Amino acid sequence: MSAAISVKNLYRYFGKLKAVDGLSFEVPHGSVCGFIGANGAGKTTTMRMLSTLDYPTMGSIEICGINVVNHPAKVRSLLGWMPDHFGNYDHMTVLEYLDFYARALGYKGKERHMRIQEVMEFADLIPLADRRSNKLSKGMTQRLCLGRALIHDPQVLILDEPAAGLDPKARVELKHLIRILAEEGKTIFISSHILSELGEMCDSLLFINDGRIVHHGDAESLLQGTDAAGGFFYDVQLTGEASKLSDWAVTSPYVEFIEDRKRGGRIRVDSDDPEVAADLLRRMVKDGLPVIEFHKEQRNLEDAFIDILEKQ
Amino acid sequence: MSEESNIHPVVKSTSDFSDRISPMLVKELRQGLKGPSFMILFIAIQAILAVLILGQSFVTSYDNVGKDISTSIFICLSLATCVLQPLRAISAVGAEIKENTIDLMVITRLSAWRIVFGKWISIVSQSALIITAITPYLILRYFFGGMQLFGELMGMLSIFIASAGITAVFIGISSLPNLILRGIIGLGAVFFISMFIIQVFSSSYAYRDLMKLMTFDFPEALGIYALLVLFTIYIAWLALDFAAAAIAPISENRATPRRLITLLIVALTFFIFALGDNEFREAIPVFMIILSLPIGVITLTESPYTTATVSVPFVKKGLLGRISSIFLYPGWASGLNFVLLLFGLSILSCLFHNDSSALYPSSYGISYFKEATTYLGISFSCLVMPLLLVRIFFKKTDQIFVFYLASVIALFVIWMIIFIIAEQTRSRGIYIPFCWLPPIQANIFDRSSTESIAITLAIPTFLIYWTACFLTSREQWKHVRNNDLQAEGIIESERQYLAEEATAQTSE
Asked: Would you kindly state where each structural domain of chain B is located, as residue ranges?
């Protein structure tokens, strides 16, 4: 059986700018794939091409085995698209908004009512039915947009930065909805800047930089540090001046200072050996650092992302 | 799945519009009728007409009061439906593109055409509502006397048809990606339409001629009216199709039907003119020029990039398909051939004037045939020359239409400068060094002392510009041939699939 999303040698140029520069990857059916990259890395361009809204300069994209350029109408019936930015209509309520899309997707009468009701219940939109769609909060708008993308019950969902600009509560609600969809077996291709959330949700992660894939693998390997761009992290807390740690790290071999923290910082070493950790602590104390806390930390996706970008 | 009885009453309330009505129309009506612009216009026109009619009935005591009220109604109605209502469409597609909502629409089952058509029909139906709402004033006007009932009703119908056509043109303009260009064209159109309306209804001669046309008071009136209606429908369709093409996926071939329908309209035009006498037929080259210019601009600015699926129907038809693709394949390269075909048909149309006098000089000193072919040459050169400029200076641009229009504006400015210098200094000889510019050829043709130069140059100039453009189209034709090869592969795999299906069915 073909993959839900299959991309081969994909290129997209805008004049001299290479927005997408030879992407190839596959996303299996029923999996959740996180798409990570800095602003301008080519995420939205790729997602727009996957969604039949832009066309490649070269290369091919297939959704459930159907070519998106040659058969856009067939592909559109299989996918739900949620863009990073979109406007809402003036003088249109939430219900009218969903009703329009249900009609546009070909639903009639009773079936249309049922589809609207189902997505409104799923995205908790019933209490907002009579609200003007352009007067919603960002979180409500994202729920509405997700509801719209689900009206035709698509097999594949392409979500471009769905959590961007959401407050923590709305982010949790959206994450919960996406998790339910993943459990229902939908293939989800999602981009986000909040990498920790992607780590929890995704079966695989696709890192992109300057239009090229720089890493494609599962979140677990990145978090455990078994990935090529690995390392092991320690949180060190001191009494007194926190900057002492970074000064010490500069002069210490095999130790890299990662980030400042309130009372110390975060360092990285190459080895997972407990002896190395013990030796590290011994050296700190010997060199006069007032260490009050020293513990191993799990690598996070931000670390992995920065590592990969630095390796580039 | 929920049962119908379990459906929330709020959800059931969406049945205010029947399922048979286009989703786009439902959306646009829900938005449009609630919006302030329609409400204000609807109420304002009622108030203005009420004040005007009351005022005129009290103030005037002369015989023409009925005609003056008719004029007021026509001016108000025309400005409301042919200027203000179409203006509401100026951002119809552009706003959706800007707000990123068009993407959400095109990934539904709505085709690009249905989206654009829905937007158009919504504004047109609101215009119809405005026209219907002024019926009481027409009844009131009847009591002032002097009413040409049939003529004025035909006038109202004509205003409605014109409004629908102008609205379509504004929707076409709304799909232009460049906001400044959209603004310039839109404001220019509003200015000319407003001037035209005021000119027609404020001049008693123009109004009288209009009423003669509306009442079919002279032999050719029906033919002229039919041609005007046909032309309006064609332009409206062309403008909507232009907007649809702007949002349609590249695998959708809109160019071939567009060109085939144009050829059908040309055939209909020939038929209508063939019914008239020679005097009527003299106008056919003018009509051909008016018909060819908009489709010419659109075909010459079509994107050359298509997918292999576009080639499939052409390849399937074998040799006939390959030959027809020379004129009908999407993209400006075949558009160039299509323009040449239209030019040939236009030259052919001159033969409709089958009187031998067409070949001999008239009282103006020039034969009809020479005059018609010269104007055709100049007009078609005007069409092709901007493309040549785009091919030379902006070869790699994706926005051919924008640069084509920019070239047209640049040509117009150059022509204006030369024209002003020539007229101010009264030295028309200045035109001669610029005779390679098609609009200048029209100035040269206008003077009896230099008209022979224009007659000699007009058609060769067109053919030279056409050939120069053709020579730059090699890359586009390579792309077409490449698509043809891929299409052969698609057809072959389709055949194999069908054969496998048939074998599987037989074995079952």
From this structure: 20-248
Q: How many CB atoms lie within 10 A of CB A245?
A: 23
Quote the CA–CA distance of B377 and B346 in Å, as a whole number.
10
Quick: pLDDT tens for A121-155: 998 898 998 898 888 888 889 889 999 999 999 99
Report the alpha-carbon distance of residue B501 to residue B124 in Å, rounded.
Answer: 49
Mean predicted lDDT score pLDDT of chain B: 86
Residues 6+ apart with CB under 8 A from A117: B2, B6, B7, B8, B11
Query: Is B23 part of the contact surface with chain A (CB cutoff 8 Å)?
Result: yes
In this structure, the strands spanning A5-14 and A58-63 are: antiparallel
Q: Determine the residue of chain A that is closest to B25 in CA distance.
A: A100
pLDDT above 90: residue B471 = yes
**Beta-carbon separation of A69 and B108 below 8 A:** no
- Residue A65 has a CB neighbour count (10 Å cut-off) of 11
Q: Would you state the pLDDT for residue B1?
A: 44
Which residues does chain B have within 8 Å of residue A89's beta carbon, measured at their own beta carbons?
27, 31, 101
- Residue from A117, A142, A144, A156 to probe the interface with B (highest B Cβ count within 10 Å): A117
Of A55, A109, A110, the CB nearest to B250: A55
Look at residue A251 and tell me whether its pLDDT is greater than 50. Answer: yes
What percent helix, strand, coil does chain B show, rounded to 5?
A: 80, 0, 20
Residue contacts between A and B (CB atoms, under 8 Å): 121
* CB atoms B100 and A126 under 8 Å: no
Chain A residue with Cα closest to B109:
A105
- Structurally, what CATH architecture does the domain formed by A232-311 represent? 2-Layer Sandwich (3.30)
Candidates B99, B109, B308; nearest CB to A86: B99
With 0-12 CB in 10 A as exposed, 13-18 as middle and 19+ as buried, what is B422?
A: middle
Name which of A83, A117, A148 is nearest B7 (Cβ-Cβ). Answer: A117
Question: What token pair was written down for B255?
Answer: 């160019």
Contacts of B175 (CB under 8 A, 6+ apart): B93, B94, B97, B116, B242, B243, B246, B247
Reported as a single tens digit per residue, the pLDDT across A270-281 is 887 888 889 889
Question: Distance (Å, rounded) from C-alpha A46 to C-alpha A207?
Answer: 12
What's the alpha-carbon Rg for chain A, to the nearest Å?
Answer: 23
Does position A225 have pLDDT exceeding 60, yes or no? no
* CB atoms A83 and B100 under 8 Å: yes
> What does residue A34 show for φ and ψ, rounded to 5 degrees?
-90, 140
Rounded to two decimals, the pTM is: 0.81
- The minimal CB distance from B11 to the residues A73, A95, A148 is found for A95
Contact criterion met (CB < 8 Å) for A91 and B10: no
Task: Using alpha carbons, list the distances in angstroms from residue B175 to A96, A127, B91, B335, B405.
Answer: 25, 37, 8, 20, 14
ipTM of the complex: 0.80
* A5-217 carries CATH number 3.40.50.300: yes
> Do A167 and A139 contact (CB within 8 A), yes or no?
yes
- Tens digit of pLDDT for each residue in B400-450? 888 998 899 999 999 999 999 988 888 878 888 888 899 888 888 877 667
Give A-chain residues touching B394 at CB under 8 angstroms.
none
Of B381, B431, B390, nearest to B410 by C-alpha is: B390
Q: How far is the alpha carbon of A197 from chain B, nearest alpha carbon, in Å?
A: 26
Looking at the complex, report in whole angstroms how far the Cα of residue A172 sits from the nearest Cα belonging to chain B.
Answer: 25
Could you tell me whether strands A17-27 and A66-67 are parallel, antiparallel, or unpaired per DSSP bridges? unpaired
Residue A9: left (phi > 0), alpha (psi -120 to 50), or beta? Answer: left
How many angstroms away from the CA of A42 is the closest CA of chain B?
18
Shortest Cα distance, chain B CAs vs residue A27, angstroms = 21
What are the sequence ranges of the domains in chain A? 5-217, 232-311
